[in-house]
Amino acid sequence: MTLFRHPRDRIPVLLFACMFALDLTVYFTATNWWFPILWLGLGVIPKGWICAWNHHHQHVPMFRHTLPNRLLEVVFGFLTGVTSHAWFLHHVVGHHRNYLDQEKDESRWKRRDGTTMGELEYSFFNALVAYPRAFKVGLQHPRALRTFLVMGVLQVALLGLLFWHNWYNALCVFLLPMCVSLYVTVWATYFHHTGLETTEHSHASYNIVHRGYNLMTGNLGYHAAHHAKHGLHWSQLPELHAQMAKDIPPTLYRQAGIPFVWFGSGAKVELSPSEVEALAQYGRTART
Known about the structure:
Pfam family, one: FA_desaturase
Radius of gyration: 19 Å
Low-confidence stretches: none
Distance between the termini: 31 Å
Protein name: Fatty acid desaturase
InterPro entries: FA_desaturase_dom (IPR005804)
Keywords: Membrane, Transmembrane, Transmembrane helix
Strand order of the largest sheet: 1-2
Organism: Hyalangium rubrum
């Protein structure tokens, strides 16, 4: 019997486990004040990437069975600040159903007066309301809400034990990185849809085709494809994006973020006709 739903999830899960093991090593062995802070800073970017994989897991669970999925979600909770089923409620059955309607979208980028939020305003506000909105969506999905609440209590209890054992290391190695990762997760979503008002999936998302970015985020850059078929495994998104390439406006692309692009990170770019054709050609090749 296969443990994983998809064999391509094996290496990512191994890497998540290694990152969590490193966190625990620092937590249990660091005896000075500065190393946990240094570790916090070093972990911002890799844990930001792991946030994308937590997102993928909430769409398509990586294991076939409940117990390993819940255990993985505890690890994700410590690494990303997003606990079990928080993404599922807020994002999968919330944002994905409502992202074309800014009055309902759980990650809405519009203010109540209809104007567009700034980058920092959006990031701080949506990070603050992420868990309340997940709970609100959960009222319509009692079974998922129950898992969200039970696993949330477990996550808090485990974090409490870590604080009881060593409050300073728990603060720097776990709690603060969890908060930073949650903020980074929300901040990244600002560049996905802001300013796009349409009823077409192919016109409602910005996309990133940078190879390094998509390697580290599990193809999150193929965002129009992800919204067109959000139950698709992350490994299949490039092919779907290629099939949609001719329908996606060439202006709906962005630069990758740091550390792939240090200047103009997240800036809008326009693909040339030859670049669009190259993407479409990938789709035709993949289908033959």
